[in-house]
Amino acid sequence: MNWLGKVVGGTFGLFMGGPLFAILGAALGHQFDRVMGNVGLLQTDFVPGTQNRAQMAFFTATFAVMGHIAKADGRVSEAEIKSARAIMDRMGLSADMRKTAIRLFNEGKRPGFPLDGTLDQFRSECRRGSSLLRLFIELQLEAAYADGVLHSGEEQLLLRICDRLRFSRFEFHAIKARMEAELRFARTENQYSQWRRERAAGARRTSTSDAYAVLGVTPSASDQEIRRAYRRLMSQHHPDKLVANGLSEEMVKLATEKTQQIRSAYEVIAKARKL
């Protein structure tokens, strides 16, 4: 990740201020202190609105808030830790990036974590990218579902996060419904070869039903509505659009994965409808 290499490499300093700066500084520890001695060189790379700064804000907020949500019910479960690590694996993080992500996750678990300030600054840094906010919420929801259940305390915290980011609660619930379907659909797709061999009618009905939910439509939707929903979701998660809004190459891997899930769901529906 370009911005982290600049920060920990010691080539120049970073002084952005605010909670995100403090959280990242705590996560990087002595490496960050060493770099801060070089403040003044090429600081324009981290002025508000630049891609490096948006990348840093997204990465820092994603894993710190993820840790905070994991602690919402009073303890962090093994499933939640595994879920966070699985997301790191899917991103293909380097060893240094992975260590930083884990430290950010731990910072989020600490008492007194400045959630509101972190969200305010994150929203400010990503002001050009509603797609970034959507992906951020999706990742937080995915981590919250680590044990297969979204607990009441976790959902209330997620709604508070949405309110702080000025992210629509209606869209949050739509994402939640799609994610629940995606989780079911992914499990079905993992067994797709066996399903084809056995021609299990029940599995076929479940897969198609979940595919509709992944696209955020009902089985009664017209072919045109299904195509429109498919195109909208693909546009929202298109990697090129997210990169333009400041997403890093590691995060793009998750966005690409999401587009594959959306495409797979559409293909199931298209086959069932003979589109």
Write structural notes for this entry.
This protein has 275 residues and is mainly α. The chain has two domains: 1-167, no CATH class; 177-275, Helix Hairpins (Orthogonal Bundle). It has 15 helices and no strands. The longest helix has 25 residues, at 249-273. The radius of gyration is 20 Å and the shape is globular. Mean pLDDT is 76; it is low at 5-15, 33-49 and 191-206.
Question: How do you describe this structure in short?
Answer:
The protein has helices at residues 2-9, 18-28, 30-36, 51-70, 78-91, 95-109, 115-125, 130-144, 152-165, 169-190, 192-198, 201-214, 223-236, 239-244, 249-273. It has 275 residues and is mostly helical.
Ordered list of secondary-structure elements with their pairings:
Layout: H1 2-9, H2 18-28, H3 30-36, H4 51-70, H5 78-91, H6 95-109, H7 115-125, H8 130-144, H9 152-165, H10 169-190, H11 192-198, H12 201-214, H13 223-236, H14 239-244, H15 249-273
List keywords for this structure.
275 residues; mainly alpha; Helix Hairpins; 2 domains; 15 helices; 74% helix; 0% strand; globular; DnaJ_domain; J_dom_sf; protein-folding chaperone binding
Name the structural class.
mainly alpha
| Number of structurally distinct domains | 2
Mean pLDDT: 76
Rounded to the nearest angstrom, the distance between the terminal CA atoms is: 41 Å
Instruction: Evaluate the radius of gyration.
Output: 20 Å
Number of E-state strands: 0
The number of helices is 15
Shape: globular
What is the N-to-C succession of helices and strands?
Answer: HHHHHHHHHHHHHHH
Q: Spans with pLDDT under 50 lasting ≥5 residues?
A: 5-15, 33-49, 191-206
Largest sheet: none
Subunit structure: Homodimer.
Subcellular location: Cell inner membrane
Protein name: Co-chaperone protein DjlA
InterPro entries: DjlA, DjlA_DnaK_co-chaperone, DjlA_N, DnaJ_domain, J_dom_sf, TerB-like
